[in-house]
Design brief:
Layout: E1 10-15, H1 22-26, H2 31-39, E2 43-47, E3 50-55, H3 57-75, H4 82-93, H5 100-103, E4 109-111, E5 114-116, H6 121-132, E6 135-139, H7 146-159, E7 165-170, H8 186-204, H9 210-215, E8 219-223, E9 235-239, H10 247-254, E10 262-267, H11 281-289, E11 295-299, H12 309-325, H13 328-337
Helix pairs in contact: 2-4, 3-4, 6-7, 7-8, 10-11
Length: about 350
């Protein structure tokens, strides 16, 4: 419980349909109930399949809506977890206007015994944008699912025969190491830069079939330099780590778009590994393409992180530090270039 309710508080009664187990709703040993109690000022009491919420009317209404959404998730076959409950609370607290039961039940891909779904409102809008637009930019910090969801959508499109092949590419830019000093052949030196893309593929496709698909050209994983001079038709093309492209490389990549193809560009403008003084193509592309039809920019933030909870706190801390350290003139320019275009 969250403490003694106010004398002027009201009561809201929630009856859980008999088809649902209270354990599945509240968690083993009430672990999910405790998350809900910590999130609200209302006093929550459970007796049988009835839940009584005592507190301010507005707060009670949000609690009641939360249980309605959690019951809807259970009805869809979703197993409730602490993460799902916390994300549902965050969605209801935000002004996004999206129902958690609609966000957390969007199936992208079912593979190897699990289903890949968006876990936040921004992630849902990101995957919806990929369905609706030819070129989509997913910009946000590490762990927000930018690349993972894009690869899932690419595999989904391939399985649905919407495209004939998947092309995954990254710029081979050093982050503290020099390619020339790494051991091995050129392929072995480049391979570590492409490894995250292979990892995502292995989560979505039977590992035994990946070499065959790559040998046939159905799946291609290659450095960005290998895209020059090509026209990519009937393909789902993903450019990852796009903050490490120059404006010229970004232009080169975008102009590879062929008929029947779709492009997704992902990156984090706060993690640029380009040599000092080199402009990031991802930082300037929004101003360049602003207003062009069928090009969409999605911005993800720390609330969309699907890694360890501490990652969100680290991202927020760095953003505060950068904001405090940044000169006022640079801050004004960044706000201008980071604005969300109207679509």
């Amino acid at each position: 419980m969250n403490g003694r309710p106010d004398p002027d508080s009201t009561q809201t009664r929630i009856v859980v349909p008999g088809a649902h187990s209270m354990v599945s709703l509240l968690g083993s040993r009430d672990e999910l109930l405790r998350i809900i109690e910590r999130a609200f000022d209302s006093d929550i009491h459970v007796r049988g399949n009835e839940i009584t919420v005592t507190g301010e009317a507005a707060e009670n209404a949000v609690v009641a809506q939360l249980f309605e959404e959690l019951i809807a998730l259970l009805s869809s076959g979703t197993v409730l977890t602490a993460d799902a409950v916390e994300r549902s609370v965050a969605m209801l607290r935000s002004s996004a206007g999206e129902r958690p039961a609609e966000v957390l039940t969007v199936d992208i891909l079912s593979s190897r015994g699990r289903t890949i779904r968006p876990k936040s409102v921004n992630q849902k809008r990101y995957v919806e944008a990929i369905d609706k637009h030819t070129v989509v930019f997913g910009i946000g910090p590490a762990g927000t699912g930018k690349t993972y969801l894009a690869v899932a959508k690419a595999v989904q499109a391939l399985q649905a025969k919407q495209v004939n092949r998947i092309i995954l590419t990254r710029p081979a830019v050093e982050a503290g190491e020099r390619l020339g000093f790494l051991p091995g052949t050129l392929y072995e030196k480049i391979d570590p830069y492409l490894r995250p893309l292979y990892d995502a593929l292995h989560d979505m496709i039977e590992p035994d079939s990946i070499p065959r698909l790559m040998q046939s050209g159905t799946i291609e994983v290659a450095p960005l330099a290998y895209m020059r001079g090509r026209s990519l038709n009937d393909a789902f093309i993903i450019l990852d780590e796009a903050q490490n492209t120059t404006p010229e490389q970004m232009k080169m990549f975008l102009t590879r778009l062929g008929f029947g193809s779709k492009m997704v560009v992902t990156g984090d403008v706060t993690q640029v590994d380009l040599p000092g003084g080199t402009r990031s193509g991802l930082r300037v592309v929004r101003d360049i393409l602003d207003g062009i039809p069928d090009v969409y920019f999605t911005t993800l933030n720390s609330s969309d992180v699907v890694r360890h909870k501490l990652v969100s706190a680290i991202i927020d801390a760095y953003e505060r530090f950068d904001a405090d350290s940044e000169p006022a003139t640079q801050r004004t320019h960044r706000r201008r270039t980071d604005r969300e275009p109207n679509r």
